Here is the input.
Amino acid sequence: MATTTIEPDLSRLRLLQLVSPSLPTGAFTYSQGLEWAVECGWVSDEQTLREWLISLMETGMSKLEIPLLARLYRASAADDVATVTYWSRYLIACRETRELREEEQNRGRAMASLLPQLGIDLPPETLAAVKCCQLTGFAVAAQRWHIPLRQAAEGYLWGWLENIALAGVKIVPLGQTAGQQIIALLSGEIPRLVNAGLTLPDDSIGASCPAQALASSLHETQYTRIYRS
Here is the structure.
């Protein structure tokens, strides 16, 4: 009885750890093109920031990250290293700019360094996949810590939303209350978007957000910036 009571509680706490901004993967140093979107006037206030975020949630997170998280999670559970590697490389191929690819890989290397320190031993082949793709590290950790897939997907999307919304608060700038209002409003969309992502077939996986691709590529040469992407 004690095991069945404690284990779910522990898995929820592990999920909080994985999505925490204090996780040393450098998530807070990236804006994923938002800094340039503010610079050029695409995002200038609370409403346009909210529109930017929901667009990325609809066109990217729900159609790329969430379905790939599911496949990486299941492949990790089956010890299917070939499939883990395939989908990790697929995600990198879907990153449309140098900045977005480097973010994925830099954070992946940070996850590869961190997870063994948290008791998650990775065989060499899996370690190589984690090093090239931070989503792989998240999926492997969620599976090893027995975090249910849906909860892991909701936590991943919520963590992304919090990070980019707070980046917008700093860049626009907006008040902290406005940032929290945006998070509260858009987090209500997470269950729907996760459900769509978890049921997406293989041949429908892929992101298409030209505005983010343009913003990210132009951010690479932006004169004044505080974010790495």
